[in-house]
Input
Amino acid sequence: MGSSSGKRIVVTGATGNCGTSVVKALGEDPSIASVLGIARRIPAWSPEKTEWAAADLSLDPGLEGYFEGADAVIHLAWKFQPTHEPAVTWRTNVLGSVRVFQAAAAAGVPVLVHASSVGAYSPGPKDHTVDETWPTHGWPEAGYCVEKAYLERVLDAFEPQHPGIRVVRMRPGFMFKKESASEQRRIFAGRFIPGALLRPGLLPAVPGIAGLRFQALHTDDAAQAYRLVLEREVRGPFNVAAEPPVDAKVLARLLDARVLRVPRTMARSILSAAWGMHLVPASPQLFDAVLQLPLMDCTRAHDELGWSARHTAVEAIEEFLLGLREGSGMDTEPLAGHKVG
Output
């Protein structure tokens, strides 16, 4: 396993929102000797201590070779689109993840860190938090949640079959940073939604929808949690999110707008029509899921990892909104910046 001067870490999905922050955090850690970033396309970006490999996790026959000699594999690769073609995302997200788990076991990797999500959780409360024992059956109609929940079941079977592998499941809230703004606009809102509309004072109102209360954090803070699980002999799931929970009132303050109560059925009908006409990429089923997700208790991450968020959830979203207005991005294929409007 890693050299006498430090550990060797492999990161899949290394050029996306979370991947770029994780690679950067690992490169700054003196205990890490080298990082192998795996992505479908090799970027021009050259972070410290990092080498690149191009691979499609659902197709590449040589995954085991990338993992040999690694001290840990951090699996972040994920495809959010196309929501209209669930077989495509299932092939990459579920079958690709299973291949990563199997290759890590075959290569004798001692630590496997998997990017699960708050989206894996079953519907839960919005007025108090739940810990990592809350059921992870997802929202059954949203492809993203179904895939995250299915992989939780895969790991339930994987862990007793491979007791020598320390498996960690990270369950972050919604992750934002300035550089992810263009990518997340393309994934969820569409390529042509003008970021300039989100300048404070331009939007008259923010829709107040029952159940619209969620947790967020800065992606760089999530990356530190991923780094910390490599240092400590921990296993199992970790909730990771910043304070405070975000709702329509928080968003209205950020945008200098008022809250306009909108019936959930009306909001969903509008989104469903837009999605059906391919005007927005986010599905109405994902909208349903967001309104059902529980708030997470992050005590375990604080106590066992010594983790705490440096940014509030409001600061993370504020930075993201700035990125939307400026068309921010990075020199990787997923995070390419593009200003609209």
About this structure: The first strand starts at residue 7 and ends at 12.
